[in-house]
Sequence to fold (743 residues):
Amino acid sequence: MADATQEQSGQRELPDRDAAREWLESMMLIRRFEERAGEMYAKAKVGGFLHLAIGEEATIVGAVRALRDDDYLISTYRSHGHALSRGADPDKVMAELFGRQDGVSHGRGGSMHMFDGEHRFMGGYGIVGGNLPLAAGMALSSDYRGTEDVTLCVFGDGASNQGTFGETLNLAALWSLPVVFMVTNNQFGMGTSLERHSAVTDLHHRGEGFGVPGLQCDGMDVLDTYAVIGEALKKARDERKPVLVEAITYRFRGHSMADPEEYRTKEQVAEWRKKDPIQVFAKRLEDEGMLEEDEAEKLDQEVVSRIDEAVAFADKAGFPPPESLYDDIYVLGDQVGGGWYSVDERSAGVHRGEHERELAEAERGPQDEYKKAVDEASREDVGVKKPTDEAQAEDDDAEEAEASAGDEASGRGRSDK
Amino acid sequence: MRYREALNQALREEMQRDENVFLMGEDIGVFNGAFKVTAGLLEEFGEKRVRDTPISENTIVGMGVGAAMTGLRPVVELMTINFSLLALDQIVNHMSTIHYMFGGQVRVPMVVRMPQGAGHQLGPTHSHCFEALFLHVPGMLVAVPSTAADAKGLLKAAIRDDNPVVFIEHEYLYGQRGDVPDDDEDFVVDFGKAAIRREGDDVTIVGISRMALTAEKAASILADEHEIEAEVIDPRTLRPLDLDTILESVRKTNRCVIVEEGWPHGGVGANLAALIQEQAFDHLDAPIGRVTGADLPMPYSKPLEQIAYPHEPQIVDAVIATFRDL
Fold:
């Protein structure tokens, strides 16, 4: 399997008609979701960093569809797609981006920290390489409890240079843990290209020294990704052995919305866009008679409508109330309840000595700032349905907004429209 | 019973009580633990539940987090607190953060145990006291037991709690003896309840970790040689902190000295002094005194090491200084 990418690509057998169409739809949903998220970012409805997975949809859907319901999935700061394809409600994923109480992480996590425990999506994590130990811990837990669950841990090529990569692969192999490490090699660790950050660029070979065999798949091909991840999951499940899978892919957009993309050429991007995982797969389905000629467009329109609903939901959803600021720092119980330093003793404002404990919640903290942020977010109603023929124009707008954005270190440089 | 035996008993009892409790750490099994806290547990519970790990602190703690998120109750041993710096990413970014970051939807019930402390000539990289570092981080509990009974009772409480806990032991204390209830499997010491080690009306001395013992000895000297009756308080846990007990004492004595082994800047004493002056300013007859470890990397040479962390005379001097203006 390893190094067989070129031969296998496009040659994989299709699943049944319903599954194939669902995979296509799931990839389209991620694409349209990400595009709208980018637009909402440009409108300042979404804050922080926004890392889009446009171009990487096949790595997500191919991998997630290879999982069983009880398997664990853990991802990175580029995880909207993982949450969506695992079954999270698009309304709630969008609401998380909007910072609302109804978001998948109740507005505490944001774009980089999605979570959906019900579907065993164990979260997106903002620290590069930080999720590998967690994944091994989940696999240990499955092993300990005697279940058949496997954990799929997704991370980028940049994370393969973190200490946790070597530490975790060693431990997973040493303890025979049922975990699949999937390195989504999108050719760049932020703005540093693969050959500039890794001495060995065939990343799937990097586990061998730790006793973790490697496989490679064409991350632009949902079928190849599904097949190779499926094989890795089977090995992890049946043989209790970790596997490293390298998915070769490319992100069409910048690292985040604040990326001027000075480290790569337009020609390179254009070349990869020819391998667009959605278009290639849609064409394959049409060629094999699983999709009528206009159906892809129809599916796309349905998806766009679904995203419209998600945006409308998110825009209407309420912000977490100010009195919830200190909720869920601790699990409250016998030991942690009313005492100092247990929950909400210290506001962000001036500490008012002996009287602070008696102050009403509403009097604590910088309340004006809270109201200001709510007002700003409500300035423009974006929850209106837009005709799909505007989608491309919006796409272009979003790209312009990206191009004019500043660099990550100096923060976002977006302008409100 | 010695402090280390009390910890061992706590681990054994909680492992017997709950099969989801398991141990991970470097040399805790075959080697029986660098400080013998886990002695005999591998033999009793087997390799599934007492797991020797490679030297990979950040990953060991991170695996504990992943296991805790999915239903287990890991107890991770870091050989010393100095090595916890390698795991600070997982401790701060994940262990203490995940419950809040995901809106309360997942819990991380785990304990990270580690000993701290100077006095064994281990030099600059093996003698730290970092309770202030962990106190700084919201989202986890911090215990600093100074007696054998507290070591047992607090560790059992830590394992049973649904929050992540940083459990800071002390290398000097491992060999210290004390009475420990060993006929009650449910003997626990609740977090957030300070212990008054000695009652007195003249000055409040708050001692952290090993310094609670040093403070008690200093209090004896103060009574015998200076006719000063000190009240000695051991907070036992820093999060949650039993500030009420400390404030009550300060309002009675009107003087306070805080003793810790760690560095002065941004220390536990600095923080506590801020809280006390915010809450009891009108009750203070003198500035709050602090006695801390020296503001430097711990030197190896024994005479230098001995003057680089607090002993009784410095505490006595600090207490007397609070009476200077009378």
Remarks:
- The mean pLDDT of chain A is 87.
- The beta strands of chain A are 72-75, 121-124, 151-156, 179-185, 188-189, 192-193, 214-218, 243-248.
